[in-house]
Design a protein that fits this description.
With 169 residues, the protein is α+β, with helices and mostly antiparallel strands. The chain is built from four helices and eight strands, in the order αβαββααβββββ. Keywords: Signal.
Length: 169
Amino acid sequence: MCKILFLISLLMIATTSMATNNIRPGLWEVTTTSELLAMVPHIPSQQMQQITHLIEQYGLQMPRIQNGAAISKVCITQEMAAQEVPAHFYENQSGCAVKNATRAGNDYKVELVCTNAQFQGTGVAEGTFTSPERFTGQTEFDSVVQGTPVFTTAETSARWINESCTLAR
């Protein structure tokens, strides 16, 4: 189950990372919901510590998880906001590669291919920029996590909070 939570964290990144074109740079709050996140309260504290350590190894911060939703803060820099597709984020942070990234108006779609020590799989992240300060999206990911097939979906919404990128939780 701890590997599934790690996968969900990567799904949050996938959807969040695409919110980087024609939006306001600064601090954003991202909320991701998933059936898998609803299982988090049933994970023993020792396993949660292992999950947190694993996520930190990827340079990420464990999101606050409550009521089946993960809530995290993400800093979008001016440089990130200017990029069409921030492929380096996927490759450097999650071991995923972006393929067939498309954008039409306010809608985007990205195919992901991930191969790393924790999991292998493919997925699709897509969504809509509803304004320069909000976006919504969804992610589907079909993977194998340490030999176990896992299919998961996640819904994401994000809102701009502040010009300052102080990542206070």
